[in-house]
């Protein structure tokens, strides 16, 4: 039995995951999640209207040892029962990443446990294969607060970027307009909830390229013009989904697999529409947003490859 600890501190959430995998290395279908702890720092940053890197880093430092300790205790394990430690290496806020990297490496070094630095975007995508058969080539769509990108995945370590947003990420669009509407941070889940109260859509044309900054300005103006919030939220969901589908459709042929990851992939409307257009794979909602399980699982896959 392999036990893998995953540490994720790329942004403002402190996340630790613990998974257990059968010893038979080629058996990828038997991953058990022992713990998936996500400690949100939203309350610390909300009064500043965005993430303050120094606060995020200090909070990761204070929380990580305690969370890892709790995770081990809850599972009746000692640190020496862990076989591998994965930590997010990039991309992310440098000061936040450094805490997770140093903590993960030090924990491994002092207990003689191998460690592995994981790419956060890859982890959001590859977690789709947990308890499924790996399938390559496939396409990976990452839609989060920091990224909106389509990748061609040839294998675990061979990737090619096909298209990415020219400016803001889709999640940033939701969060920034959410702030103008006085919604709590992050705005995405609140916008989804409000959007579900109507089917009315404000007519508008799609941006010519994959870009969210013009939409951000357009929707900010609609809020200022006192257009009903539920119509605004519904239209945001619809237009951003249409924009994504239009821009990725050119790359993906019928029956090719599209794996989707990142916080915005929790959105039900987007899931439904992507499902109508592609053979698509999503993860459960607790694994869509930043988490340590995806880091642990990706560290495992990288060790195998
Ligand atoms: O992957 P993630 O947790 O962090 C980053 O790596 O950025 O994604 C966070 C983003 C936020 O922008 C948040 O508003 C968005 O995911 N999000 C959603 C939903 N849940 C989270 N957006 C739309 N609908 C949701 N249900
Ligand atoms: Zn993320």
Descriptive notes:
- The protein is of the alpha/beta class and 305 residues long.
- It contains 10 helices and 10 strands.
- The strands form 2 sheets. A 5-stranded mixed sheet has the order 3-2-1-4-5, with helices on both faces. It has a 5-stranded mixed sheet with strand order 8-7-6-9-10.
- Helix 9 (268-277) links the parallel strand 9 and strand 10 (279-281).
- The radius of gyration is 20 Å and the shape is globular.
- The chain starts with a strand and ends with a helix.
Helices and strands in order:
Layout: E1 2-8, E2 14-21, E3 31-39, H1 42-45, H2 53-74, E4 84-90, H3 94-111, E5 115-119, H4 120-126, E6 138-143, E7 148-155, E8 158-164, H5 170-180, H6 187-195, H7 213-224, H8 229-249, E9 257-261, H9 268-277, E10 279-281, H10 292-304
Parallel strand pairs: 1-4, 4-5, 6-9, 9-10
Antiparallel strand pairs: 1-2, 2-3, 6-7, 7-8
Helix pairs in contact: 2-3, 4-10, 5-6, 5-7, 6-8, 8-9
Bound molecules: 5'-O-[(R)-(carboxyoxy)(hydroxy)phosphoryl]adenosine and zinc ion.
State the assembly state of the protein chains. Answer: single chain
- The proportion of strand residues reads 15-25%
Uncertain spans: none
Main beta sheet strand tally, sense and closure? 5 strands, mixed
Mean pLDDT: 94
Instruction: Give the strand line-up of the largest sheet.
Output: 3-2-1-4-5
Measure the end-to-end span.
Answer: 19 Å
Q: Structural class of the secondary structure composition? A: alpha/beta
Helix content: 40-55%
Q: Order of helices and strands, N to C?
A: EEEHHEHEHEEEHHHHEHEH
Bound molecules: 5'-O-[(R)-(carboxyoxy)(hydroxy)phosphoryl]adenosine, zinc ion
Rg (C-alpha, Å): 20 Å
Number of helices: 10
Shape: globular
**Total DSSP E strands:** 10
């Amino acid at each position: 039995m392999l036990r893998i600890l995953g540490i994720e501190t790329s942004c403002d959430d402190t996340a630790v995951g613990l998974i257990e995998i059968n010893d038979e290395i080629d058996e990828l279908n038997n991953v058990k999640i022992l713990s998936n702890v996500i400690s949100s720092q939203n309350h610390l940053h909300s009064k500043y209207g965005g993430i303050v890197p120094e606060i995020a880093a200090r909070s990761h430092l204070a929380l990580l040892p305690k969370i890892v300790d709790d995770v081990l205790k809850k599972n009746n394990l000692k640190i020496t029962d862990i076989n591998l430690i994965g930590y997010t290496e990039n991309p992310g806020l440098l000061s936040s990443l450094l805490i997770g990297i140093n903590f993960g490496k030090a924990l491994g070094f002092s207990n003689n446990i191998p460690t592995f630095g994981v790419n956060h975007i890859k982890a959001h995508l590859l977690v789709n294969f947990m308890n499924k058969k790996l399938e390559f080539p496939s396409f990976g769509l990452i839609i989060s607060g920091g990224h909106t990108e389509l990748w061609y995945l040839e294998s675990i370590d061979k990737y090619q970027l096909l298209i990415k947003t020219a400016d803001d990420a889709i999640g940033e669009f939701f969060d920034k307009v959410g702030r103008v509407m006085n919604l709590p941070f992050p705005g995405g889940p609140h916008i989804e909830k409000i959007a579900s109260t109507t089917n009315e859509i404000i007519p508008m044309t799609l941006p010519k390229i994959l870009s969210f900054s013009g939409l951000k300005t357009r929707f900010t103006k609609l809020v200022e013009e006192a257009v009903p919030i539920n119509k605004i939220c519904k239209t945001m969901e619809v237009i951003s989904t249409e924009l994504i589908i239009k821009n990725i459709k050119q790359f993906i042929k019928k029956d090719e697999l599209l794996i989707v990851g990142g916080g915005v992939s929790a959105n039900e409307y987007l899931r439904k529409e992507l499902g109508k257009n592609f053979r698509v794979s999503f993860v459960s909602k607790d694994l869509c947003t930043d988490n340590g399980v995806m880091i642990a699982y990706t560290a495992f896959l990288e060790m195998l490859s």
